[in-house]
Design brief:
lipoprotein, globular, 9% helix, Ubiquitin-like_domsf, mainly beta, palmitate, cell membrane
Length: 114
């Protein structure tokens, strides 16, 4: 029962598992993290996290801050948008240089405890 105003997100875990969710343009990254946490898929059991506050969305290689809404990203309605879902305690500061740069790939250090 998708309406034309819904945005279909396919979330991909580091493990490669995927699940699709429907959201509205008014939903923020934090809202999405909470919804996914509250409706955690059965087959994602191994990736279960302790809190929705550490779930981060990555869209086109960039971390989304919690207050960014889907509407602000100008995502296409009626199409599936792919985002990555990762567990991170903190987001890298946008302006800090140096060692932070290697985190841009984000693939290998999903599980490094800093």
């Amino acid at each position: 029962h998708t309406s034309k105003r819904d945005i279909n997100l396919r979330l991909i875990l580091v493990s490669g598992k995927t699940k699709e969710f429907l959201f509205s343009p008014n939903d923020s990254a934090a809202d999405i993290a909470k919804h996914v946490y509250d409706n955690w898929p059965m087959d994602w059991e191994e990736e279960q996290v302790s809190s929705p506050n550490i779930l981060r969305l990555i869209y086109q290689g960039r971390f989304l801050h919690g207050n960014v809404t889907l509407g602000a990203l100008k995502l296409p309605f009626g199409k599936t948008t792919v985002m990555h879902l990762v567990a991170r305690e903190t987001l890298p500061e946008p302006n800090s240089q140096g060692q932070r740069n290697r985190e841009k790939t984000g693939e290998s250090n999903c599980c490094v405890i800093l």
